[in-house]
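User: Structure tokens for both sequences below?

Assistant:
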Amino acid sequence: MRIPSEVKTVLDALKNENFEAFIVGGCVRDILLDREPKDWDITTNAKPEQISKIFPNSFCENKFGTVTVQTGSKKPNLAEIEITPYRIEGRYSDKRHPDEIKFAETLEEDLKRRDFTINAMAMSFGSKADGKQRIINSRSSVIDLFSGQEDIKNNLIRAVGEPAERFNEDALRMMRAVRIATELKFQIEAETLNAIKKSSDLINYIAEERIREEFLRIVRCVNAYDGIILLKETGLLEKILPELVEGIGITQNKHHIYTVFEHNVLSLKWGAEHNYPLRVRLAALFHDIGKVRTKRGEGSDATFYGHEIVGAKIVSKILTRLKFTVELEHTISMLVKYHMFYYNVGEVTERSVRRLIAKVGAENIDDLVKVRICDRMGSGVPKAEPYKQRHFQYMVEKVQRDPTSPKMLKINGNDIMELLGIEPGPKIGQILLILLDDVLDEPKLNTKKYLTNRTKELGSLKESELKELSGKAKDKNAMFDKAVDEKIKGKYWV
């Protein structure tokens, strides 16, 4: 494997000043697995101030002594290369950060502090012998004090030293073990796995943001299903997502052969294996999370009325707790809320589709269809109803040019104020609501002329009359939702 010139330049610069220099950690593991490293990390016996002197175009912004060298490379993973001095770490009283950092004298001391054997290897390169920037005699160039190469050969994740001590130092290492096992399709070695199970409570010490990032890396894997199951087996899932665990053992009705938990995770499996976007995978994983709290009855006729509404609220709380962005929280919650949208060829009108688009947003319709596919395929149903899916997408595209929100009307609030000579107030919103209702029923009415005349007509009404009309427009949406809900219940036994 070729070593990037940026990495070799940094290594050579350290060696030319008579310092030791090795690539270390995950990049060594990736090289041995014949994978291109995402990041290149270097360790050395030089101290931060010595490193900074060698590399003027660098900065050091953390207490660990890591110096980041800016290489000027156009490749994102090579634009900055981190160099960390050999170090040893003190107690981890908060289970997250070492109380103190001390610089070490030897590479062996540094490797001992690392998490897993496959991440505790270093690799050296002769600056003269490999002038073509190739690894030569990689077996002899690997410094492997904890049998990391053997564990790679056996597809194992094993803690360095005593597993319980490693997890007591940094509890996030438990999540990391699951994530790496998922990414590499490895197994967690028995003693290490047992230590995670016994130490799983320690994850409560970890900041939600750090948990979220490891969790998302698991969900992004093609075999995300295996990662979620492994989180369950280790006891970590019930600590970070207790709402999802509630579905374990909860049976469904005649349209499902799996429990609620199995169905949710298998829905994610389909989305991950078909490379669906992250938001769709998360919505698939959580889409039926509200069923546990809405289940009524047992056996084939059990019902889950309103589970999508309850589920959306649960998902919103989960994503807020894990510090997701407001935008992603809103999108995923919305996909969960509307994943039960009713669609049957010949029954659903263009008006129904327009109103659905108005609720979820045109930009989210494709994702909503994907969540529905995940739902069906995670139920054990042999096919994803491709004809209905294609017909629905045809209907969406057909009405896509039609207005589905006040923003798409050929008139806005400022126009209404100017036409009627009024100040900002509730009257403007009431008129917009009535105009939108008109256009949802008949898209061709969305013209400046019609809306202007209709606005003048509405502006002449008494306050009570306008309020009544806008109330009726709002009620139409409510009646539509109720009618669709009844059809959903009858069709899907939920």
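Moving on to the next sequence.
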Amino acid sequence: MHLVSYTSGADGTRVGIEVEGAVHPTAYRDMVDFIVDGEAALDRAREAVALGRTESNARLLAPLPRPGKMLFLGRSFREFRPGLDDDVEPFVYSRVPSSVVGPGEAISVPEPDATLLYEGELLIVVGRPLKRADPGEAMAAVFGYTQVNDVTWTNWLESPHGGPPQICLCKNADTFCPMGPYIATADSFDPSDVAFSVTVNGEQVMKASTSGLVWSIGRVLEFLSRSMTLLPGDVIATGTPAAGPIVAGDSVTVSFDGLGELTNPVAAAW
């Protein structure tokens, strides 16, 4: 099942079901509320599809416009870490919800001298609370998956005055986390060996598979839940095997098999 957040006229944000390009409305207005309701919400969604009503002018938003915790992994693919195995712990950093935008919304270059990188990544959506979970328990608590472009503002990684890298600042500018277009529920998506790619202006600039991840999804969730309780609506990005430059005027697309295409223009903010 494919779940979307959307707007339609003056009706505010709604949760819908995407089927072959058509959006079927549900009674929910917030994706986190839908996730918390779990199987009951999914049953209502199936009933909504069976009714056959569709939205004629739905504009898709990020499927989770304001997620809970946003935890992102760095250097988690073997391409970045040749020779390493899953005994090596991943690098983890946080994002803020205000960096999230949806499909079609612009990635905003914040300053004339800002240098930006694309990073196409799989995003895990947590469906049930997890604390010190083993990998099997963790996988059972996954609600679904979507994709993000984990944009990086590289100027913050080297201080001209010799200070430390500013990971928080390089990742959390407004518009730097495009997400979507939908969440594929866990029963409809196998994350173990998924082909994905990034294109810039129609030219493929990266192609890989999630089979290159150093850690499995279950191990990632086990590791994170040792430190904190993961809650419904929290998201975890699994990292990227490659990154590359984007500039104002570009159009960048992240595409995972089974998750559609996430396309965003890049625009100057000044």
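User: Anything stand out in the second?

Assistant: The chain has a mean pLDDT of 94.
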